């Protein structure tokens, strides 16, 4: 069994999911390879090797400074052709999902997206994923020859902290570094904002906050916990907040340690995107709101009284 994980980087820094992937495949046994592409991939490869990345394949070129579907697919496909992995695993992030769909298509492989577990049993690799809004857990088994592709939901596994590894500097054909599009610069949408996909704490707002003028109330609560601000589709569609904050079936799928839902009723489309959160706290004045069916803790009451009280408490307890 040979597994290749794809470590993605942003602004020359490895994203946390790179180490989560390594931790996820440790129990599979067999040979582990990790690929990292960057303008200067060697230093990133050394980090991965020191934290259990196995044989870390480093590809360095100025064309790889920023993520580019065209370049990444060509370069990783060249590595797949050379090393013939049985399984290629990447993160189910915005870029990871786009990348792996193209990788599977180009390499003629089967694929499963957004898995939340991976194990080895009876000589086979078994992956689990949520279906039908999370009400069903499906098992996907890798059978037969050929390379199989999968993306893993972030925050399911902890980051690998240590382990053995070695760095192998790889070269690819120059044609793999030619693309129809060149990324010249990348800018963050809002300075200082916490990325939803990477956040350990998310506080999300729904229509229960009554208007965009009350969003700062929820933002203050998120800030007091050093978390990210999320939103239901209803308030995104209403124009109260940007789409980048949306959690749910047509937004981001998240898996934080703590998810606070403020004024969110709990439509299935929203639950799909956050129901695997480790701890869910719901605040809603409607005691029959569906969100309470999956919440670990529920607070029935007026959010305009509860949220400021929680914010003040957290500021005192966590920030001194």
Order of strands in the sheet with most strands: 7-11-6-1-4-5-12
CATH topology of the largest domain: Rossmann fold
Major pleated sheet: 7 strands, parallel
- In N-to-C order, the SSE pattern is EEEHEHEHEHEEEEEEEHEHEHEEH
- By CATH's scheme, which homologous superfamily of the largest domain applies? HUPs
Radius of gyration: 21 Å
Spell out the key features of this protein.
320 residues, alpha/beta, Rossmann fold, 2 domains, seven-stranded parallel sheet, five-stranded parallel sheet, 17 strands, globular
Question: Helices and strands in order, then pairings?
Answer:
Elements: E1 2-7, E2 9-10, E3 13-14, H1 17-25, E4 31-38, H2 41-50, E5 51-60, H3 69-83, E6 87-91, H4 94-107, E7 110-115, E8 117-121, E9 124-131, E10 136-142, E11 148-152, E12 163-169, E13 201-205, H5 215-224, E14 228-231, H6 233-237, E15 258-262, H7 268-271, E16 279-284, E17 297-300, H8 303-319
Parallel strand pairs: 1-4, 1-6, 4-5, 5-12, 6-11, 7-11, 13-14, 13-15, 15-16, 16-17
Antiparallel strand pairs: 2-3, 8-9, 9-10
Helix pairs in contact: 3-4, 5-8
Structural summary, described in words:
The chain is α/β, with parallel strands linked by helices. It folds into two domains: 2-177, Rossmann fold (3-Layer(aba) Sandwich), CATH 3.40.50.620; 196-319, TPP-binding domain (Rossmann fold, 3-Layer(aba) Sandwich). The protein has eight helices and 17 strands. The protein has helices at 17-25, 41-50, 69-83, 94-107, 215-224, 233-237, 268-271, 303-319; strands at 2-7, 9-10, 13-14, 31-38, 51-60, 87-91, 110-115, 117-121, 124-131, 136-142, 148-152, 163-169, 201-205, 228-231, 258-262, 279-284, 297-300. The strands form four sheets. It has a seven-stranded parallel beta sheet, with helices on both faces. Helix 5 (215-224) links the parallel strand 13 and strand 14 (228-231). Helix 3 crosses helix 4 (94-107) and helix 5 runs parallel beside helix 8. The protein is globular, with a radius of gyration of 21 Å. The model has no long low-confidence stretch (mean pLDDT 92).
């Amino acid at each position: 069994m040979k597994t290749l994980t794809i470590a993605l980087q942003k602004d020359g820094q490895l994203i946390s999911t790179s180490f989560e992937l390594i931790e996820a495949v440790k129990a599979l046994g067999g040979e582990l390879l990790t690929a990292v592409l960057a303008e200067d991939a060697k230093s990133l490869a050394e980090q991965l090797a020191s934290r259990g990345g196995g044989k870390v394949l480093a590809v360095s070129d100025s064309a790889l400074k920023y993520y580019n579907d065209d370049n990444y697919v060509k370069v990783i496909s060249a590595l797949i052709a050379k090393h013939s992995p049985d399984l290629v695993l990447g993160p189910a992030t915005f870029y990871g999902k786009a990348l792996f769909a193209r990788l599977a298509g180009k390499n003629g492989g089967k694929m499963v997206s957004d898995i939340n577990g991976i194990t080895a049993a009876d000589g086979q690799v078994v992956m689990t994923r949520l279906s039908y809004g999370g009400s069903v857990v499906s098992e996907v088994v890798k059978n037969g020859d050929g390379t199989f592709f999968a993306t893993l939901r972030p925050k399911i596994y902890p980051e690998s902290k240590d382990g053995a590894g070695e760095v192998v500097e790889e070269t690819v054909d120059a044609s793999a570094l030619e693309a129809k599009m060149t990324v010249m610069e990348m800018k963050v949408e809002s300075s200082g904002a916490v990325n939803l996909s990477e956040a350990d704490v998310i506080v999300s707002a729904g229509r229960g906050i009554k208007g965009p003028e009350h969003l700062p109330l929820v933002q203050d609560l998120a800030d007091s916990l050093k978390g990210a601000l999320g939103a239901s589709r209803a308030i995104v569609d209403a124009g109260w907040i940007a789409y980048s904050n949306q959690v749910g079936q047509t937004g981001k799928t998240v898996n934080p340690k703590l998810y606070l839902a403020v004024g969110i009723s709990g439509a299935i489309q929203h639950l799909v995107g956050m129901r695997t959160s480790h701890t869910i706290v719901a605040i809603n004045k409607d005691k029959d709101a569906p969100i309470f069916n999956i919440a670990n803790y529920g607070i029935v009451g007026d959010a305009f009284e509860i949220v400021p009280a929680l914010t003040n408490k957290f500021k005192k307890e966590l920030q001194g």
